[in-house]
Amino acid sequence: MKIFNIDTQSYEKIRPIPDASTKIERLVHAIYCYENEIFEVLYDKTQPSLKKYVENFDRDYITQEGMQFLFFTSGTTGDPTGVYKTRKNIELAIDDLIKVLDTSKIQRVVATVPFIHLYGIEAGALLSHKLGVELHTKENFLIQELIAEAKKPNTLVITTPLFIKALNKTTEQDSLKDSFFITSTAPLNHEDAKTFSEKFNSSVLQIFGSTETGAIAYKINDEKIWHAFESVTLTTENNMLGIFSPFIAPKTLTSFIQNVELPFATEDIVEVIGNKDFELIGRSSNIAKIAGKRISTLQIEAIIENLNYIDAVLIKIKRDDKALKDEILEIYVESDQKLQAKVLKELFTKHFGSLHLPFKIFNHKKIIRSSVGKKIGFE
Fold first, then answer.
1. 234 and 262 assigned to the same domain
2. Does this entry carry the keyword Ligase (predicted)?
3. What are the residues facing 209 on neighbouring strands?
């Protein structure tokens, strides 16, 4: 596999880099581990709380036979959750993705995504490995740099909704008809997908899934209906999506390692159409997906409520289709003292590192609770 570093204009040698700290180094090290069947833990070391959490585990304990990578996600509870993936999990997912692509038109891959998450590793790195084409990447892409790369014929761009939305906002009008885009990590709304397709005369394939499930389904451009990948079987219970799939993590790690039961129950509300298609109605109300990561509003409420002058906090999630960030946290605070944005930013940096959480603060509110103490609103 050839990795071209756009920043240095040179090819990277595949080699072990145990203390990898940059995006390129993490990619090189991950590929080395994959090619040599070496187990590795991949996570965002810029998040202090996550780094501390992972380092508290005994390496011998978390190293599981037959596993290729251990990824970390906040999970649906907001607590760090380790997700094991085997080579078979990863390779079968890539095989299914290839089946919905016109690979005859892919001669190079450009990836804007980090290589510490499942999407970045599978689509961003190992897809090009499987196809036998060069992977071009850099530490940080400016929009104009991405456009320049996408203009090159037969390019597959692996990116996120953030970049698609940013491309829509540029004055650039050149056609990107000879390139194809894949996006994941967060929803891309109907209008943004339509605008992108019409403006650049190109197509974007959206992947729906999670670290635990792997890829579940896909849709192209402004389609409303998701199509399950070939190896995925859909189930529902009370309109909540469940799946059987060879991509699902066999084990997870919280305070201990446990096997994953099937069907895997998601927190996504869907309307299934036939055997392989569904419409996504909505996500669980207390989970925000920001920069590709699931963040529990309950976790954030608890962090803020640890401040001694805060009586209670209730967080609502607002989608802002005009902003580059998909979801904004509306934070309602019950306290005689005003919660300052500066204090909140410092808290977020402490707990989430470089992850940017968009928010608005509403001070001096009264949090309304139910008879069992559940927060149900504000006044």
1. yes
2. yes
3. 215
Q: How far apart are the first and last CA of the chain?
A: 58
In terms of domains, do 171 and 297 share one? no
- Calpha distance 187→168 (Å, rounded): 16
Which whole-number Å values give the CA distances from 105 to 41, 102, 150, 218, in the listed order? 34, 6, 13, 19
Answer yes or no: is pLDDT of 157 > 90: yes
Residue whose C-alpha is closest to residue 321's, from 211, 176, 161, 112: 161
40: closest CA among 125, 112, 136? 125
Provide the total of helices (H) and of strands (E) in the chain, helices listed first: 11, 25
* pLDDT tops 80 at residue 344: yes
CATH code: domain of residue 345: 3.30.300.30
Residue with token string 């072990």: 16
pTM score, whole prediction: 0.75
Nearest one of 139, 116, 142, 140 to 22, comparing CA atoms: 139
**Whole-number percent of the chain with pLDDT over 70:** 91
Alpha carbons 185 and 161: distance in angstroms, whole number = 8
CA nearest to 315, candidates 348, 277, 266: 348
Q: What does the pLDDT average to over 119-130?
A: 96
Q: Which helix (H) or strand (E) holds 332?
A: strand 327-334
Do 336 and 215 lie in one domain? The reply is: no
> Which residue, of 253, 281, 309, is where some domain finishes?
281
